[in-house]
Design goal:
Elements: H1 32-48, H2 61-83, H3 86-99
């Protein structure tokens, strides 16, 4: 007699679920019949010239203004970045790093 003889089989049951409600349902695959129906429908539309134009999405005044402002800000950002050369940016970074306190310095605590 093995140690595994009296182990219950089946999947785990989660709390709050009852019976078959925990089972995951598989999605049904599309059949070839559906594809054929779509193809014939598309051919009928083309043959009948009943193709309707796609609705064009127009933007509101607020959306247009928002995009203009965003573009303007992006342009300003690019201009600001283009003013400094790489050498100047590196020098500025080094200056900032020199001003910062070292993170590994031991702070003085207590008397003396």
């Amino acid at each position: 007699m093995s140690e595994y003889d009296n182990v219950p089989g089946g999947s785990l049951r989660l709390k709050g679920g009852t019976g078959n409600s925990n089972k995951i349902k598989k999605k049904k695959k599309k059949s070839h019949k559906d594809e054929e129906k779509l193809r014939t429908y598309a051919k009928e539309l083309v043959d009948d010239k009943e193709i309707k134009p796609i609705r064009v999405v127009t933007k509101t005044e607020a959306e247009k203004k928002f995009e203009e402002i965003q573009a303007k800000r992006l342009e300003e950002k690019v201009q600001k970045a283009a003013r400094k050369s790489h050498k100047e940016r590196v020098a500025e970074l080094n200056r900032k790093l020199e001003e910062m306190t070292e993170h590994y310095d031991i702070p003085k605590v207590g008397p003396g």
